[in-house]
Amino acid sequence: MISRIDLRGDALPEGGALRGLLPRAEFDVEAALAKVRPICEDVRHRGTAALIEYAAEFDGVTLDRVRVPAEALTRALDDLDPAVRAGLEESIRRARIVHRAQRRTEHTTQVVPGGKVTEKWVPVGRVGLYAPGGRAVYPSSVIMNVVPAQEAGVGSIALASPPQKEFGGLPHPTILAACALLGVDEVYAAGGAQAVAMFAYGTTGPDGCPPADMVTGPGNIWVTAAKRYFAGRIGIDTEAGPTEIAVLADATADPVHVAADLISQAEHDPLAAAVLVTDSAELADAVEKELVPQTAATKHVEERIAPALSGKQSAIVLVDGVEEGLRVVDAYGAEHLEIQTADAAAVAARVRNAGAIFVGPYAPVSLGDYCAGSNHVLPTGGCACHSSGLSVQSFLRGIHIVDYTRDALADVAHHVVTLAEAEDLPAHGAAVKARFGWKLPSVPASSGEVSGE
After folding, report:
1. Residues 6 or more apart in contact with residue 118 via CB below 8 angstroms
2. How many C-beta atoms surround the C-beta of residue 299 within 10 A?
3. Burial 246-280 (b: 16+ CB within 10 A, else e)
4. What pLDDT digit, counting tens, does each position of 202-236 carry?
5. Which residues are catalytic?
6. Could you tell me which residues come within 8 angstroms of residue 402 by beta carbon, excluding any fewer than 6 positions away?
7. Is pLDDT at 395 greater than 90 in this prediction?
8. What Å distances lie between residue 288 and 71, 304, 316, CA to CA?
């Protein structure tokens, strides 16, 4: 069901050579980009009419309007299963606790007497959030996008999710209910690249969508390709690929737990990656054996779990020890990394590359998906070596405010002019000289400091 990669015995290679030995899903965003470009430009020129036509073509629904009526949001929340509502409310509560603590505060640094730099943090003005609605429904992703945006202070939040034929062309009612719980009343029945284009360009008309400054949220390859297409015009969170879990485990790990966690991510998508890194051949054997009955006992086996576990993106990787295992998981840079070893907290503290780290036997990835308080919108495809998951910081911009007096500028003027001339930018230096009647204050040879006029 799952392949093996044996890295025992020989010294592990460095950097890219080690990454090249590890399993990874094929995810050709560049090829998808060629297909989404005309869709995005069609939305640019035809707006809502194009969105309605794509809903008919891709989702099989006939829409009269793209914006979801307010009464549909209210009705979805009223009809929501009380147990599901309680779960969503607890997820929101915990997410707010974590994300509220991420707020940034203004800070002023006194560089020299009379010269200071203040960094203030300003939220983006408007964001468009995407909630997938294909193979599965993700109200949890609504929470993970909306909460950090709200805690950052974003003033205008809109959400798009694909229209569903079985719900009369509206997004899934649980998505709508989650929006209602969070106070998001601007919701659009739009999916795929066309939803990203709607946010990037905006649409006009009675139900028009104003353009957004930023688009965040997970999606399929078409959503990812559209984000790449618009990067630079709008801000994006990340180019999300198929989900992935890596488990670093030793002989102390419970194979039942490890197998269950691998399957939990495999059920997302046939391209989902499930990777076990271990120095215990006995654990590897036990996990592989345990995958069989657990897979047989669950749903989505043929269309998702079986192809995910047997695909080239999934494997059991055998290493000589936990030390080597750490090198492997750092090279892999998993979206989700579980540490199930002796002294798991100490091992987890040494990890450098992961979207999120789950420590010990009682912190499975599924906890983080819903109710840990952490965010589950995380970097994939090895991007954890340079990128972070979604947070309040994602929706903030740091702006430096430079405030210098005449004397403070005089103290450093000769350095500014010297550096400007070294870069052959004399007008830069002239902008300083003009403030002193084109003649710089003298610089005492003994101190190297400007003495003033």
Report:
1. 106, 107, 108, 109, 400, 401, 403
2. 9
3. bbbbbeebebebbbbbbbbbbbbbbbbbbbbbbbb
4. 999 888 999 999 999 988 899 999 999 999 899 99
5. 335-336
6. 117
7. yes
8. 50, 18, 9
What would you report as the CA-atom Rg of the chain, rounded to the nearest whole angstrom?
26
State residue 453's pLDDT score.
34
Whole-structure pTM value: 0.92
CA 330, 334, 335, 339 dihedral sign is negative
Looking at the DSSP bridge assignments, the partners of residue 278 are: 249, 318
The Cα 348–Cα 360 span in angstroms is 9
* Three-state SS at 22: coil
Pairing of strands 115-123, 187-189: unpaired
Segment (H or E) for 16? helix 15-19
DSSP-assigned states of every residue in 328-361:
HHHHHT-SEEEEESTTHHHHHHT--S-SEEEEST
Torsions phi, psi for 195 (to 5 deg):
-70, -40
% of the chain at pLDDT higher than 70: 97
Which pLDDT score, from 0 to 100, does residue 22 have?
Answer: 93
**What tokens appear for 95 in the block?**
């997410």
Task: Look at residue 60 and tell me whether its pLDDT is greater than 50.
Answer: yes
Listed range (31-35, 44-48, 135-139, 193-197) with the worst mean pLDDT: 135-139
Distances (CA, A) of 199 to 147, 153, 195, 223, 228: 19, 19, 6, 12, 14
Assign 364 to helix, strand or coil: coil
d(CA 141, CA 130): 8
**Summary count for the chain: helices (H), strands (E):** 17, 14
Burial level of 109, CB count in 10 A (0-12/13-18/19+)?
exposed
Least confident range from 47-51, 135-139, 386-390: namely: 135-139
Q: How far apart are CA 61 and CA 225, in angstroms?
A: 23
Q: What Å distances lie between residue 432 and 237, 447, 453, CA to CA? A: 39, 21, 14
Q: How far is it, in rounded angstroms, from Cα 66 to Cα 165?
A: 14
DSSP state of 238: -
Helix, strand, or coil (residue 18) = helix
Amino acid (one-letter) located at 293: P
Which residues, including other chains, have CB under 8 Å from residue 247's CB and lie 6 or more apart?
253, 258, 261, 262, 275, 276, 277, 278, 337, 338, 340
Q: Which of 336-345, 405-414, 416-425, 437-446 has the lowest mean pLDDT?
A: 437-446
